[in-house]
Amino acid sequence: MKYSVIIPAHNSAGFITKCLESVRMQSVTDYELIVVCDSCEDDTEQIAKEYGAVTEAVNFHADGLTRNRGIELARGD
């Protein structure tokens, strides 16, 4: 796997689909998709799973920590 696409999210159900569609439309196909849901209380995680994303729910309430957790989960080069 060459790339890891990491998306930190918080209650993003209203627009995560557009983001995930954008990733899907790229010419690069050798990637993994990771969505880290920070304190999500909506359907963000379920939507991400429908797009084949690896998801993890956390309660950091901090963008940097959420992004860093995504980096820890990443397996791409």
Q: Can you give a write-up of this model?
A:
With 77 residues, the chain is α/β, with parallel strands linked by helices. Helix content is 35%, strand content 26%. The chain has helices at 16-24, 44-50, 63-73; strands at residues 3-9, 31-38, 54-58. Strand 1, helix 1 and strand 2 form a beta-alpha-beta unit. The relative contact order is 0.30. The mean pLDDT is 96.
Distinctive features:
single chain; about 80 residues; alpha/beta
Rounded mean pLDDT score: 96
Note the gap between the termini: 7 Å
| Stretches with pLDDT under 50, minimum 5 residues | none
Write the H/E string, N to C.
EHEHEH
Order the strands across the largest sheet as they lie in space.
1-2-3
DSSP strand tally: 3
Largest sheet: 3 strands, parallel
Structural class: alpha/beta
Radius of gyration, taken over Cα atoms and rounded to an integer in Å: 12 Å
Number of helices: 3
User: In what range is the share of β-strand residues?
Assistant: 25-35%
Query: What spatial form do the alpha-carbon principal axes imply?
Result: globular
Estimate the helix proportion, in percent: 25-40%
